[in-house]
Amino acid sequence: MTLIKSISGIRGTIGGKAGDNLTPVDAVKFASAYGTFLKNNIDTSARDNKKLVVVIGRDARISGPMIHNLVVNTLVGLGIDVIDLGLSTTPTVEVAVPLEEADGGIILTASHNPKQWNALKLLNAKGEFLSGADGAKILEIAEAEAFDFSDVDNLGEITSNDAYMDIHIDEVLNLPLVDVEAVKAAKFKVVVDGVNSSGGIIVPMVLEQMGVEVVKLYCEPNGHFPHNPEPLKEHLTDICELVIKEKADLGIVVDPDVDRLAFISEDGEMFGEEYTLVAVADYVLSKTPGNTVSNMSSSRALRDVTNKHNGSYEASAVGEVNVVELMKKNNAVIGGEGNGGIIYPELHYGRDSIVGIALFLTHLANKKMKVSELRASYPEYYMSKNKIELTPQIDVDAILEAMTNKYADENISTIDGVKIDFASEWVHLRKSNTEPIIRIYTEAPSQKQADELALRIIGEIKEVAGI
Questions:
Q1: Which of 122, 307, 377, 411 sits between 20 and 30 A of 247, alpha carbons compared?
Q2: 239/245 Cα distance (integer angstroms)
Q3: Domains of the chain in sequence order
Q4: Rounded Cα distance, 467 and 390, in Å
Q5: 178-223: per-residue pLDDT in tens?
Q6: Within 13 Å, how many C-alpha atoms sit on residue 376's CB side?
């Protein structure tokens, strides 16, 4: 059982001892720290209503109602007004925060983690994840337990608003690059796996408004995930089979909080999470030429597609906050992460599967081709993901420095571990912040080459480490 405190929030497994797991005590403690941080940093004196406002939403996890009630009422106890979206998605809450002119937001979700996990994801007034510096301040406040709760006459108030999934969909469908009529004319049939969470509500809703025939699979938002909720090939055999059985044009899979998006081709094969962003970026760049950003562990295919459209591609450190920061710096028109996370600044700076679905279907309708044909039109790259477990006595930083020196003549980045770009393949080495592990990601034009590169690098690391 685990409790992980980081600058992006707090996540852990439900039950067990306070401080070791995500217990009610821990939920209250970190909600108190977040609320206190807002009170310390936002001046409300010029407002008619002097209170701060925070938007709250949750996914459909079994522990959701419990954690939700604790967090909401903790903020009320701090004198903060809460706009409660109830069952929602991460991108929906991100959209709601600026529309409500709120001071922040909290999403109660452990994203792709299994059902025993939950988390508090923390947003700023723009509806974006907090900066590392702000996250660190919240951890300090939590550690010190420096909370000052409101007296009875100044408690916060709760306003429920269950309209935001509809509002989110409206915002997406009103985007200039989303062509609802073209999608309606294509008469797509789509199988949706909502992993029995919020995606089971919002994904069919947006598809039906785009004139798509929907076949639902695991769309009952009861929190009982029917398979591992991370949208990887090995977890998605049911939808792959159902796409073929239903003679559907494609399958759509999201994770429990709807910020990761994967597609299944009409032949039951995975489109590839890495290629979700590639396909959407191809469409966006064809209409609005510009720059792109993904993280260092994402496919080189995005760079290739960006170059095709005469744009500039840059890679950030891993983590959504880092991707967004570099997107803003480079004025990127589209970006995201290779795990199926689409960030489209025209709407907001956050991974958003609903935006991704609408743009992908528009692209597919315009191309007038099968999903498998669209996938075949992109550069072929294959990844291998591995890790080496080391003893605590081994200096991981020294190993990474030795690998940097060994390949000094190659194109190297050290902003997030060590990324070595070869002519036709790359390797990214990252150390874990919590255990003596080096993660090794490789990509090459064939799976054999990716695996062989990984084995070679693993051997070299073991030689340097003397193991």
A1: 377
A2: 10
A3: 3-162 (3.40.120.10), 168-376 (3.40.120.10), 382-465 (3.30.310.50)
A4: 9
A5: 999 999 999 999 999 999 999 999 999 999 999 999 999 999 999 9
A6: 9
Amino acid code (one letter) for 277: L
Say if pTM beats, i.e. exceeds, 0.85.
yes
Q: Dump pLDDT digits (tens) for 279-325.
A: 999 999 999 999 999 999 999 999 999 999 999 999 999 989 999 99
Sheet holding 117-123, edge to edge: 3-6, 9-13, 117-123, 104-108, 53-58, 81-87, 158-160
List 8, 63, 88, 111, catalytic entry: 111
Residue 312 appears among annotated catalytic residues = no
